[in-house]
C-alpha cells in the first residue's frame, strides 16, 4: 500500500506492475493524464486518509506506473540509430575502398 504522505506523481515507485504487452497503447498519454488527474483528486479529498482512499490511491498509482512501464518498454524496443555507438554503426556500414584521383575526387577502387 502506498502512503499518502509519500506519494509523488512525477516519480516512480517500486509498486508491482503486471506484465504488459510490448507495445504501448496508442492513447497512453491520454490514459496517463486521466489517471494522474484521478490521483490528484483522491489525494486532495477528505477520503484520502481512510483505508478505502489509501487503497484507491495505491490502485491508481499502480495503473500510472504500469502505463509508464509500457511506454518505456515500447521506446526501448524501437531501433534507434542515435542509441547505437559509432563503432557499432561503422561495423554494420558497407566497407568501400576509395582512392583519390588526380582531380581530388574520391573514387571507388572497384570501379
Short description:
45% of the residues lie in helices and 5% in strands.
Would you write up a description of this structure?
The chain is mainly α and 111 residues long. It has one domain (4-84). The chain has helices spanning 28-43, 51-77, 86-92; strands at residues 98-100, 106-108. A hairpin with a 5-residue loop joins strand 1 and strand 2 (106-108). It is rod-shaped.
Architecture blueprint of SSEs:
Layout: H1 28-43, H2 51-77, H3 86-92, E1 98-100, E2 106-108
Antiparallel strand pairs: 1-2
Helix pairs in contact: 1-2
Roughly what percent helix?
40-55%
Using DSSP, what is the number of strands? 2
End-to-end separation in angstroms reads: 70 Å
Shape, principal axes of CA atoms: rod-shaped
What's the number of structural domains?
A: 1
Element-by-element helix/strand order: HHHEE
Name the beta content range: 5-15%
Stretches with pLDDT under 50, minimum 5 residues: 1-22
Q: From the helix content, strand content and strand pairing, which structural class follows? A: mainly alpha
Main sheet: strands, sense, barrel: 2 strands, antiparallel
Summed up, the helix count is: 3
Radius of gyration, CA atoms, in whole angstroms? 25 Å
Taking all residues together, what is the mean pLDDT? Answer: 74
**Spatial arrangement of strands, main beta sheet:** 1-2
